[in-house]
TrEMBL record:
Matches recorded under Gene3D superfamilies: Hotdog Thioesterase
Membrane-crossing segments per the record: none
Family named by the database record: Belongs to the 4-hydroxybenzoyl-CoA thioesterase family.
Source organism, top-level taxon: Bacteria
Alphabetized PANTHER family for the sequence: 4-HYDROXYBENZOYL-COA THIOESTERASE FAMILY MEMBER, ACYL-COA THIOESTER HYDROLASE YBGC
GO molecular function, one term: hydrolase activity
Name the UniProt record assigns to this protein: YbgC/FadM family acyl-CoA thioesterase
Enzyme Commission number(s) from the entry: 3.1.2.-
Keyword annotations of the record: Hydrolase
NCBIfam families referenced in this protein's UniProt entry, alphabetically: YbgC/FadM family acyl-CoA thioesterase
InterPro entries (UniProt xref): 4-hydroxybenzoyl-CoA_TE, HotDog_dom_sf, YbgC/YbaW
Length: 153
């Protein structure tokens, strides 16, 4: 018999926003107990991957089928305040722009309602040999549906 403790944590959509929670562990910090700057990118990556799962975008299936894969083409992060050992964080992600071969996602790392870092990530959809290609139409439509929810709120 499995319990809910045996299942991985999954975030989800709250309106147009995807929410993903995590706790800062010792491995995430420097010797002063402050989150190492590159780990914010890891936190955002986990949240984006979970957002795609929640949006029913099957990255693994397209990879295994040889159709293509997302790769980060651009990452911009602005650090506002440090996260610290033991902090409970929430990563809030929104779809900002959808193009034929890419998607731009805006993300915020939040602690107790305060934004600690902001990021904008552009993920390009590439063939397995690294060339840009159109992402699956169903994915574009799903992203547009999520974006439309942003405009309604």
């Amino acid at each position: 018999m499995t319990s809910s403790f045996d299942q991985p944590y999954r975030g989800g959509f709250v309106g147009p926003e995807h929410h993903f929670a995590l706790t800062v562990y010792f491995e995430d910090t420097d010797t002063a107990g402050i989150v190492y700057y590159a780990n914010y990118l890891k936190f955002m990556e986990r949240a984006r991957s979970d957002m795609l799962r929640a949006a029913e975008i099957d990255q693994r299936g397209t990879l295994e089928a040889g159709t293509g894969v997302y790769a980060v083409a651009e990452a911009n992060v602005r650090y506002l305040r440090p996260a610290k050992l033991g902090d409970d964080l929430q990563i809030v992600s929104t779809v900002e722009e959808v193009r034929a071969a890419s998607v731009r996602i805006q993300q915020r790392v939040i602690r107790d309602g305060e934004t600690l870092a902001e990021g904008r990530i552009t993920a390009a959809f590439l063939t397995l040999d690294g060339r840009p290609t159109r992402q699956p139409r169903a994915w574009v439509e799903r992203f547009e549906t999520i974006r439309a929810a942003t405009k309604e709120t």
